[in-house]
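Sequence and fold:
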Amino acid sequence: MDSTPVASISLRRSKRRKGRPRASEARSDDIEKGERRPRKRIKAATSSRRTTEQSLFEFIKGNRKLIPNAVKAWVERYENNSKSATVELLTTLFESCGAKYQLDEASLDEISVDDVVLALVGLAKNGKVDDMCTSNSKEHKNFKENLSSFWNNLVIECQNGPLFDQILFVKCMDYVVALSCAPPRVYRVVGSIVAHQLVISFITVAKALAGQSKTTERQLIAEKKKRHDGPRLESLSGRLSATRGKIAAAEEMMCDIYSRLFKVRYRDIYEAIRQMNIKALGVCIVSYSSLFLQDECLNYLGWMLNDKVASVRKTSIHALQNLYEVDDIVPSLRNFTGKFCDRMVQLADDCNVHVAVSAIGLLKQLLRLKLLGEDKVIPLYKLLIDKSPLIRRAIGKLACEHLIALKFASSQSGSKGEDDEGVRDVGKPEM
């Protein structure tokens, strides 16, 4: 009876010896033989080779995850040969428009931007342009997002170098703005996408620099309190000055694109461009209010409430909703609200149901912020019997918000009246 389990145990042991060796044992054997497999090196080498072999445009059309490495490799090429890399970047911009046009490296500084754009317009007239931005094909489904990602990565990667050399991005912006004004729609779409992304990326860089500036300023103040000059004080002062100079340069590039593109493209004949323009402007006002929160910029959002296309009106409403959600911005919106409040109320009865629902949501925000008068709210109650259930539901929420506000106001005034009466009773002389 005792022999059977011993035999089975020995059998199991013998089977284990015959099987595949354990991973740890295999690794130790490889180390002893000096045969460790360099998998990571192979992957890195493959990735590096792919980055140098493929053009930038192929990365934009391909996998978005590979774009950051492609941009880093391009920046290295720019540092080695700026003219060649600039030609490569501008060629990528033209390819993004669907046009094949090769700039001459030797004449890069002499050639006119207008001449290049005219040549590109000629290609479009001859039907030699592939529209990838408005295409519904599966191949180009993520093209616009990848294009924005590429230019965002480019700005972030260049923030410690070419971004502020007053050469590369000045030239790129000239071509981008020129393309945004060209007759072919695809050129205007690509120019607008790139320009909007550049401004948003400039804002990201400027905000990061502002944080660095505050830190350096605190360090400088602390160093001055020590009451002695030295190399550290001089270094901090120079660093602060350089950082502020970069912030000013970034803001100058933002203003340049705003004045040359935003103020023009909001009237574009193609509604998608108007929509992109308003959406980007709203993001800029929220993200960098110190520069963009002014009546001139806000007026564009108000004017687009009158756009003939419903999707543009809705985009403008959503941009305003994002503004009214920021507490620090609301006090600066009072004049704007007074100017465009009537139009906002009218949009609650818009012919497009989705626009009307969005407008009612905006009015509810104004009511909560006490920026909507009683005379504006009462007429909206007629929409409680609207034929659209979406509008009835939205206006019901607004009415509920209004009644709660009235009840709270009456309770506040009632309690205040009781307090006043109590004060008067205490003050009465006894008979």
